[in-house]
C-alpha cells in the first residue's frame, strides 16, 4: 500500500466548513480524587446513550454502566479494550497482542458482530464483518470523560448491529483539557506516550491538539514460542469547542498510521483519518435539535489477503421536545454512505470489489408519564440497507419508581444484525476453476442471507438504599433467529452462508458500589449466563466458524477497590474471574491488577502498575498450544500536567 494516505484530509476541509455550527456533548467533569463525587452525585451523572437525550443514570431504564475517566486513570490501563474490562456487564477476552473479543450477553469471538461501538458519536465498526478492529481504535485515555456501556439491545436508538449492546466512548470538551499534558508508560512488552496541549480561542472557544505513540512487542504462546502479533501505531488529532448552553459547537478529527505484525507475511499496514462536526441548538420553548456529520477514511493492507479502502460519510439529525408535562418525544433520522474498495487476494475476495453501501433511518421514541412515578416509553426505527431493505426495530419500556431512590423497569425489544460483506460478497478462491461452465467456489457468497434477529425481554432493578450503597441487577432472556450457518450451495459447488440456526440467551447481570469510608470505595459485579445455539432441522452447517460458534463463560465477576492512602497516594486493585470456555476449551482464570499512584508534586504523578499478579501466565481465548499466554507484567507510568 502506498504510504498515505493523508490526501483524504484535504477533501475533509469542506466538511469542516459545513459543520462550523456543530455541537459538543456536554461532559461530566471528572473527579480528581475518589471522594470528589458522592454516590448520590454519581447516580445523577447525565448519560445520553439510552434515549439520545440527557437523563440521570439512576433514572435510565436500561442495563447501563458508566466507566468514568477517573476509573480509567486509577486502573492504570493503557488501551481502550483494557479499559472496557472495568465494566462488569462486558465480556472481554484478549486473543493476542493486539486483538480482543469484546461483547455482552454471549456470542464472543474475535469477529464479534452484535455490539455497536461509537467514539464521540462516530460509529467505528467495519462493514466487512459488522465488527470492530480494536487494533486501530484509540484515544488519549486522560481525555476520556466517560464510557457508557449498555448491555442489551439498543437498535431503536442506534440501529442495526446494536443487538447485544452499545459502547459509547465520550471524550472531554476542549475547555476541560486546557494546558499541557505529557504521559509516558514503559514496561514489559509495551511502551507508549502522549502529548496534548489545550488553549483558548476567540469568542469563547477552546481547542486541544494531541499526538500519541504506542509500541507493543510480540507475545509468546503456551508452548513458549513467539507469535508475531505485536504492533506500532502513531495517532494525532484535534478538538475545538465553542458556544454556550443555547448553542454549542464541536469540530474534531484524527489521523492514524500503524504496522501490525503478522506471521508469514509482511506487516499489516493500517491508516485512517476522520473529521466530525456536531451542532446542538436549544430553542426558546426548551426543545433541542442536534445536527451531526462526519467523514471517515480507513485503509487496511493485509498481505496475501486483501487491501481495503473505505470512505464513510454520515449525516444525522435529531429533535427532542417536551409535548407537555408528561410527554417527552425524541425523533430524527439519518443517512450513511460508504464507498468500499477492496483489492482482493488469491485465496478469497469480496465480489464485487468496489461497492457503494448505504444505511438510511428514521426513528421516534416517546416517553409518557402514566402516573407521577410510572413511565412508559415506546420507540420505533425504520432502517434501510443495501442487502435486506427496510428493517423494523421497535422497543417498549416501562419504568416505575416506588420511591425516589429505587427504579424497577422492564423492556421488550427487537433488533437485527444486518448482513455484512462477508455474509453476501465473500468468495473463495477469488478466481475459481471452471468445470463444465460452472465456477468451482469453496465459498460462493450468500445471496439469500438475511438479517439475524433478536427478540429480548429484560427486567431490571436499581436502588440506593443508603448514602453509601447503590446497586443494580438485570435479568434477561433473548431469542435469536436466522443465525448464520455455512450450507452446501444449492446452485453449484461449494458452500454459501445461510440463516439456518437459532439460539437463546438468559442470565442475570448485577453490580454494586459501596463507599466503605470517606477515602475507600469498593465496586463489584458479575454475570451469570447461558448461551444455547442449535442448527435448524435440515441444516448441514459445515464449520464451527459461523454464527453458531460461541465461546462464552457461564459466569464471570470482578471486584475493584480504590483507596486514598494519604495525601497524594492512591492504591487501586482489580480482581477478575472468568469461567472456563468450552469451544475451544480454555481453563478458568483469576487475574489481579494493581496500581499504586504517587503525586510527587502538583501536576506530576508516578504510577506503578502490576498485571496478572496471581499466576505466571494464563490464556483467555483460542485452542491449546498455539494460543497466547499472558504473563505477569510491571509498568511505570508518568503523567505531567502544566
Key features?
mainly beta; 6 helices; 642 residues; disordered N terminus; 6% helix; 22-stranded antiparallel β-barrel; five-stranded mixed β-sheet
What would your notes on this structure say?
The structure is a single chain. The chain is mostly beta strands. It is 6% helix and 57% strand. The protein has a 22-stranded antiparallel barrel. The longest helix has 12 residues, at 7-18.
Q: What's the short story on this structure?
A:
This protein is mainly beta. It is built from 6 helices and 42 strands.
What is the element layout, followed by pairings?
Elements: H1 7-18, H2 39-43, E1 46-47, E2 55-56, E3 64-68, H3 69-75, H4 80-84, E4 91-94, E5 100-103, E6 115-119, E7 122-123, E8 144-151, H5 155-158, E9 165-171, E10 179-187, E11 190-200, E12 206-216, E13 219-220, E14 226-227, E15 231-243, E16 247-260, E17 268-282, E18 288-302, E19 306-322, E20 327-344, E21 349-350, E22 354-371, E23 374-385, E24 389-403, E25 406-417, H6 421-425, E26 426-428, E27 434-435, E28 438-439, E29 443-444, E30 452-466, E31 469-488, E32 495-517, E33 520-535, E34 555-566, E35 569-578, E36 581-582, E37 585-586, E38 589-601, E39 604-611, E40 617-618, E41 630-631, E42 633-641
Parallel strand pairs: 6-9
Antiparallel strand pairs: 1-2, 3-8, 4-5, 6-7, 8-9, 10-11, 10-42, 11-12, 12-15, 13-14, 15-16, 16-17, 17-18, 18-19, 19-20, 20-22, 21-26, 22-23, 23-24, 24-25, 25-30, 26-29, 27-28, 30-31, 31-32, 32-33, 33-34, 34-35, 35-38, 36-37, 38-39, 39-42, 40-41
